[in-house]
Amino acid sequence: MSLLARFEGMAEFLFTGAFKKGGARLQPVELAKELVKAMFRHKQISISQVYVPNIYRVYLHSSDWGPLASFGEVFLIELSKYLYSEATREGYTFLSKPAIELHSDDTVQPREMIVEVDFDDSIEVDWEDEEENENEFQKESNWRENTTIFRESVTTNSREADSPGRISDYFLEIIEGPDKGQSFKLGDHDVFIGRHGQCDIVLHDPEVSRRHLKITPGQNGWWLDDLGSTNGSFVNGQRITHQTVAPGDRIQMGLSLLVIQKVPLP
């Protein structure tokens, strides 16, 4: 019997929570706590695992829904990560990373909520586990710290070596954000950008993830790889995960705007 078949007939549960003692509006922390309660309340025990719902549909009065919905996708991802961490701490299992939806419904009273929970293994939620990212970043950092790279010094008169388009002729400049005015020369190695102290370029931007972006030099430019950041990476206004860039392209991370510039001639 399949896992979903064991949950047949249990596709939807309802939970209503009232918060009359609090302030005028439902607060994000109250919503998070009630989602955890709903998750624990509807856990299902199999032979070797304890499963918890991975779908959460929250119905709120419009006066509560509006302020919470204004946080956008970032808030939903943070709620999902919070549920994931609480379930992991208890040793519970999801069919997939939890997905959370907020819906406006004026049949629900202000400062109340209705939560529908469900089990669905076809759902995919697009965020990476922070601990997995941390481990991968640490492995790469350790490799870079403990490995000596030998480069042969070569003198050549070839036009390619003296070409003004070589990677070493460019630098990354921060033109907006808390670190505005700083610039960093781009070489022939990967560059990690984020708030983490081990990044090659450390940004003091609260909207930037600890390991946010990697820049890799290529033959005709650079590759950008978003490292599972919470708020995303953007090139010329378009969100990206893996993208080539050229000099002049505008790279946005949180409040910070960066651009690759050519080193001015002496």
UniProtKB/TrEMBL annotation:
Alphabetical list of SMART domains matching this protein: FHA (SM00240)
Tell me where on the tree of life, at the top rank, the source sits.
Bacteria
> Domain FHA spans what residues?
191-240
Q: Which Pfam families match?
A: FhaA_N (PF12401), Yop-YscD_cpl (PF16697)
Q: What is this protein called?
A: FHA domain-containing protein
